[in-house]
Amino acid sequence: MESIELDKIVPIYVENVSKRAVEKMVKILEGGDQLSSHVIVEKDRTEDKYWLVAGFPEYLAYKKMNEMHKRCPKIFCVIQRYSMMYKSLCKTFC
Predict the structure, then answer these.
(1) Which structural domains are found in the chain, ordered by start?
(2) Which domain of life does the UniProt lineage start with (predicted)?
(3) Which pLDDT value is given to residue 54?
């Protein structure tokens, strides 16, 4: 796990997450606790950014928390090795 600046994380997919679910996670963060699941990213090989590959709801909660309180400029993420999924998605969407 590594601490990564939130604004360096770029989602490569969108997940339908209810506002209520995000609010619940924000309350957990406000209480000083950790979320049960982690954000998983892949480091871009050429640029100083990270591709979000899993944990979209958690990512949204951290973003909301940062917007509300400016308390989560960095978050702990699991860094996954460069994968074929990233390469395929990058060819399609980048």
Answers:
(1) 2-93 (3.90.1530.10)
(2) Bacteria
(3) 93
